[in-house]
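Field guide to reading this record: the first block holds the primary sequence, the second block holds the structure written as discrete tokens, and the final block holds curator observations. Each block starts with its own label. This record concerns Iron-containing alcohol dehydrogenase, catalogued under organism Olsenella absiana.

BLOCK 1 — SEQUENCE
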Amino acid sequence: MNDFVFQSPTRFVFGKSAIERTGEEVAALGSKRVLLVYGGGSARRTGLLSRVEDSLAKAGVAYVELGGVRPNPEVDLVRQGIEVARANSVGLVLGVGGGSVIDSAKAIAFGAPAPCDVWDFFSGKAKVTKCLPVACVLTIPAAGSEASSSCVISNDELCLKKGTNGDAFRPKVAIMDPTVTFTLPAYQTAAGVTDMICHVCERYFSAAGPVPVTDSICCGIIRSVIEAAVRVSHTPDDYDARATIMWAGTLAHNDLCGCGRGASIEKRAGGWESHGLEHEVSAHRPEVTHGAGLAVILPAWMRYVWRANPDRFLAFARDVFGIEPRDTTLEETERVVTSAIGSLQDFFASIGMPRDFEGLGLSPDEVDGWVETLRENKGEPFGEFRPLTMEDARAIYLSCF
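BLOCK 2 — STRUCTURE
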């Protein structure tokens, strides 16, 4: 087990009617005026936003609003939010939505007190030193942004999608009510499930050796998510299954699944190869849902790299899918590993995710553009489990068609 530092400073308020506690939780943080950030019209149509607003009003917390955050959130709206936050002297940024909304709230929170343009934090020109407090009401379990140190934003002008990390913008409180996810579209639920499984896999397939406690947590989360997702696909208002998915999304990305697996205490566990590959796709094509892209890329990456550490994939096959080798031959190892990868992809497909890039309306002609910005974003080689060159990346992309 490698050395690590783990902290989860986020306060979680989880359960039925948790949303009614939003105001008192925000007020307890000492905020008298907040910027309320949300996405499209569904938060308003479902009455969720009104419940949050009522709760804030009852707690004596004033608010200004910024709506319109899209999936794969764009930096221009973040810049608008920064101006609103400054003009209204807000003391906290409250995101009501999924990962895109919460990441936008985070970027606004550290962009508002900064003397530079917010994109400088994503391009590596600046580091976060000051940040307004962030809180969130989670409505779409997927990204794990409600407790993570991650923030990912797109820049359409540059065709780039980049992330930055920092404990300063981990949310101070996360309001989590599984009942608000009952009406999520099946595709959105499935994409979220895929993303959280990938968050676990990025850490599980690091360069570290076995870490039994952490590895058991990783595989247990994946098994629980698979079971809950199947139940939800048949019964969308299954509270326990929805609660499992919501809490699993948090645990998948608050760094618990990487404890003892990181190369150093400063570095997040894993090489994040699948996320790096997918980010280029959805940066060039913002209409591609991140989780759907991962459903294609993660199995393709697995098939490309498993020979770098077959034992790791054999452990995954055993502990997630119960597939054991009958002997120690290379042929049997390949059978078990490919069967486990196939089982994972079959699961993604069973809940409505695409099997290939054609299912996302993509073309092989686009690969060169993805490789070009991947090189700019990641350098060469990149990754950890099996470092990838740009030719490796190209081969993985093409295998997705």
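BLOCK 3 — OBSERVATIONS
The mean pLDDT is 95.
The CA atoms of residues 175 and 349 lie 31 Å apart.
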